[in-house]
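sorry for the late reply, my laptop died twice this morning and i had to redo everyting from scratch. anyway the thing you sent over, i finally got around to it. pasting the sequence first so we're on the same page, its 188 residues, then the predicted structure underneath. double check i copied it right bc i was rushing
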Amino acid sequence: MTYTLIQPPFTLKFREMSKKELKDYYQWFMAILPDRLDELCQVVKQTSGFQNWTPDFTPDSLNILGEWFLLQVETRKRSQEELQEMKNQQTFPIDIHNEELTDRTFSLAIDIGMYFSQVLIKNNPSLSWKQPFGNKKFADYGQPLLTGFGVVSLNPIRIATSLAYGLSDRTRNGKRLREIYDYGLTKI
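ok and here's the structure:
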């Protein structure tokens, strides 16, 4: 099976999107979620050594999914234009890595974030989705978030993308996905 990259019909520059575009994005996200879960489950189960993975939305399913993700994460060299644009956007000078995640890895991170969200919801029915429109400076402005963790909301896509970066530079391992789940539940 060939893995089909997710193709959002939006820019994903959430702070630049109108409220209508953000609401349309949210509706698209919720509508595409089941299809993306199917896509992820198929590609994992067709990978040698992972055929027996059971995508049953249990916390234990995150263990194998995290190990699989570790083997899938890929990076590419950033172009000089990308590096310069990042430098131009900095308020304070910080080191910029020359490596960036590939489009396939970003797509897998979105799919894994969606799966992660469903594991959380299925094992804690007090959680629900919301879309914040308060302050455009909020890091998750206009994005689908899980609420029900007290005052904190969780962006499962950001979590999976951050995990991908950690896996790519080997500061994290495949067990981290389950660790994040376990940590999140202690905060509910």
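The helical segments are 19-45, 61-72, 80-89, 103-123, 156-168, 176-186.
thats about all i looked at so far, will dig more tmrw
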